[in-house]
């Protein structure tokens, strides 16, 4: 199994003394759709900022494809790891979407044709090519998030990290972002997402890491999301499907798998 990310005993203390991460260790296998969960203040955003060197560990190591992040390889790391912020307004700054997406490739000192190719491919990947001359402040929130993703894709990273990409989006916007993330994974990229939306995580994730108070409290496959007690002990609400599943078991008195519960639910609804 090839590893995309290795985090070893990672701790981080802000200048005001707040210990945001406290001995975090976990692995992210290459190509898996990975979700980072946790209540507000768990350390999710701080953790993600370490994955492309925006934060430097107070203690511990972060490895990308086996290489420890450091000053000597920061340029290479940031080519490999693209980070999309929770608020796209923190990321979009240029007069037009085209200019914004072109900014990263221009800093790589690529030839003009290579830059144009990357920008076009990235904007088409998120269905934003027709809006390429639009100023960012004229876009909807969903469009801004897609434009921010395009800016990362233009760097052609192997790992795409997104902080709360579903936040404040309507159902259609969530479907559009999910389709983009699925396509990235199909193309062989490792996608890492932090989210509070456990219903979405249950449907999408391959691998799950649960943080609380700056520490990893659980990690494993999406089966963790069916552990209602674990989730609630760590400030998270179990997915609606899990609650329905437990109700089926209680009322029918017959243990069943999550997939069986899904089938029963579909028959009831449709």
Automatic annotation (TrEMBL):
GO biological process: cobalt ion transport
Top-level division of the source organism's lineage: Bacteria
Gene3D superfamilies xrefs: P-loop containing nucleotide triphosphate hydrolases
Coiled-coil features, chain-numbered ranges: none
Subcellular location, record wording: Cell membrane
Keywords assigned: ATP-binding, Cell membrane, Membrane, Nucleotide-binding, Translocase, Transport
GO cellular component: ATP-binding cassette (ABC) transporter complex
GO terms, molecular function: ATP binding; ATP hydrolysis activity; ATPase-coupled transmembrane transporter activity
Membrane topology summary: Peripheral membrane protein
Keyword ATP-binding on entry: yes
Residues in ABC transporter domain copies: 5-238
Pfam family, one: ABC_tran
SUPFAM superfamilies given in the database record: P-loop containing nucleoside triphosphate hydrolases
InterPro entries in the cross-refs: AAA+_ATPase, ABC_transporter-like_ATP-bd, ABC_transporter-like_CS, ABC_transpr_CbiO/EcfA_su, Co_trans_ATP-bd, ECF_ABC_transporter_ATP-bd, P-loop_NTPase
Similarity comment: Belongs to the ABC transporter superfamily.
Annotated function: Part of an ABC transporter complex. Responsible for energy coupling to the transport system. Probably part of an ABC transporter complex. Responsible for energy coupling to the transport system.
Protein name in UniProt: ABC transporter ATP-binding protein
